[in-house]
Amino acid sequence: MSDFKDRIERLVGDLEKLADPGSPNRAVLAHLRRGLGSDPTYALSRAGWLFAGINPGKDEDAAILTAGLFAWAKGKCPQTKSWSVGRAFSQIKGAGDNRSVERRFIDLLDTDQADLDVKLRQIISLLARDSIGLDWGLLCRHLRSWAHDDRWVQKQWARDFWQFVASEAEAAQETETAVAQSQGD
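Below the sequence we write its predicted structure tokens.
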């Protein structure tokens, strides 16, 4: 796992360099975007150097999907260490009060591996719109295990989402109580 983690961290670093406006290789990001939802061979044939050393199969598939989603966000979702998709999605404005945000997140958790790229594009678009970051390396490691029998990734994302939505709601309640008390004095 450590070897995979190291290779993915290198991939994320390479993607961040490509997203730099001065990068001479920014066209690679367009190829990665275009490759989302298609045969992984498309991304490998145009940007295979990014995936050097990553094992073929689910490791490579997760890396290609992560790279495509990074390119989809066009650098608007900065690398934020230890932020899962659940934690990042909890930061969308009004996540705790907005039923459509909540439904979209639950729908993502129920998504099969085959449809994950489509659902994640929608989620990443929302995160990019609000410039909310996430840990791209963690996302890749999670995508690698999405179809695990015990669904530990989905459970982790759900815990992260609800924990931070609940803490935001508690903070808002404390603020309302403090304001009400100060107005009563």
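The chain has a mean pLDDT of 89.
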